[in-house]
Amino acid sequence: MNKNLLGLRIKELRKQKGMSQEFLSNESGLSLRTIQRIENGETNPTGESLKRLSNALNVNPDELIDWSIKEDKRYLTFLNLSALTFLFFPLLGILIPFILWTSRKGKIKSINKLGKDLINFEITWTLLLFFIPFLWFLFSKIGILESFTLRRIFLIIGVMYIINLIFILLNTLRISNGNDIIYNPKFKFLR
């Protein structure tokens, strides 16, 4: 990796965390002069120094080395399509995209917006999937709605699955065309 880019990344992370060079030196166990030379791009840290710096900055060593934000439509498409796991079990539509999103968060352009919107939509959808039949049952017992039948519940659940499927497929097309994604309705659980 380019010494200057690595030095800039370390300096940027140090400043984001409100650390002085002296504090980073104490936390990492490296000399102040070594920190200065790395940040000025005069030298590259050794493997051990890189490990110490990443521990002191509380980041993964990979984040220090490969920190540039890339454009990767394939991964964004894969992340979006991973929500289709809701077809097997509704919670998988949240869990799988969450794992994929957090593994690349901050490394791919637009992944944070997609990840948050997709996961918020899937959480909202999953909650509605469980609460609508429950509320229908409750309201039918009170007499507010018509009688509760399994046929109606399966129809509601089927419609909700189709809506979720349509949103995922439409947003996959939007990603491939370079357009912004649209996931509504959703509650903002992740900000």
Describe the fold and architecture.
It is a single chain. The protein has helices at 3-16, 21-28, 32-39, 47-57, 61-65, 73-81, 92-104, 111-142, 150-176. With 191 residues, it is an all-alpha fold. α2 (21-28) packs across α3 (32-39), α6 runs antiparallel to α9 and α7 (92-104) runs antiparallel to α8. The radius of gyration is 24 Å and the shape is elongated. The relative contact order is 0.10.
Helix content: 55-70%
* Shape summary: elongated
Specify the number of helices: 9
Tell me what portion of residues adopts beta-strand conformation.
under 5%
State the end-to-end CA separation.
33 Å
Q: Estimate the mean pLDDT confidence.
A: 86
Structural class: mainly alpha
Give the topology string: H per helix, E per strand.
HHHHHHHHH
Poorly predicted runs? none
The number of strands is 0
Question: Nearest-angstrom radius of gyration?
Answer: 24 Å
The biggest beta sheet reads: none
Could you write a compact summary of the structure shown?
66% of the residues lie in helices and 0% in strands. It has 191 residues and is mainly alpha-helical.
SSE map:
Blueprint: H1 3-16, H2 21-28, H3 32-39, H4 47-57, H5 61-65, H6 73-81, H7 92-104, H8 111-142, H9 150-176
Helix pairs in contact: 2-3, 6-9, 7-8, 8-9
Key structural traits:
mainly alpha, single chain, 191 residues, elongated
